[in-house]
Write a structure and sequence with these properties.
The protein has 145 residues and is α+β, with helices and mostly antiparallel strands. The protein has one domain: HIT-like (HIT family, subunit A, 2-Layer Sandwich), CATH 3.30.428.10. Helix content is 30%, strand content 14%. The chain is built from 3 helices and 5 strands; from the N terminus they run αβββαββα. It has a 5-stranded antiparallel β-sheet. α2 crosses α3. The longest helix is centred in the middle third of the chain and has 22 residues. The protein is globular and about 40 Å long. The structure holds adenosine monophosphate (AMP). This is HIT family protein. Pfam families: HIT.
Length: 145
């Protein structure tokens, strides 16, 4: 019996709205199965989220082809983060269920250029939009190069 699991995918969750083009975001990368964008409340400078274009709440829902696709996109983003931020250490994090601290119920991988002991509070402080736009541009350019 699963507790603290949202069982019904909400078509109006914030990431679903991004995929529908209903709200703005700072895009880093997109392909037919995935989208990567800057986290608006980063836990470190350069925090990126990677989502599948599939209605998945958490890891259990993720179809194999989308699981492969989000990981391949995560690899691209992580390599770009290493290049742009000139650091090797990148945290890959993913929360399943509110009990784990998940706040947006559309599967996503966090890629955070930080050390596990230095993370800022989760989803707490909004970053400057111009700075996020600049980082998104830098990361997108690094992926393209
Ligand atoms: P989680 O708690 O693992 O579900 O993470 C959700 C993440 O989404 C948090 O790190 C939030 O900062 C981030 N987030 C929430 N709203 C937005 C938004 N509009 N644009 C970008 N990131 C967002």
């Amino acid at each position: 019996m699963t507790q603290n699991k949202q069982t019904q995918y909400d078509d109006n969750n914030i990431f679903a709205k991004m995929l529908k083009g209903e709200i703005p975001y700072h895009k880093v990368y997109e392909d037919d199965k995935t989208l990567a964008f800057m986290d608006i409340m980063p836990q470190a400078k350069g925090h990126v989220l990677v989502i599948p274009k599939q209605k998945a709440i958490d890891l259990v829902d993720l179809e194999p082809e989308y699981a492969a696709a989000v990981l391949m996109t995560a690899k691209k983003v992580m390599q770009a983060q290493r290049q742009v931020f000139e650091r090797e250490g990148i945290i890959q994090m993913q929360l399943n269920g509110s009990q784990a601290g998940q706040t947006v119920f559309h599967y996503h991988i966090h890629l955070i250029p930080s050390n596990i002991h230095e993370l800022s509070v989760h989803a707490a402080n909004q970053a400057d939009s111009d700075e996020l736009a600049k980082m998104a541009e830098q990361l997108a350019a690094a992926i393209d190069s």
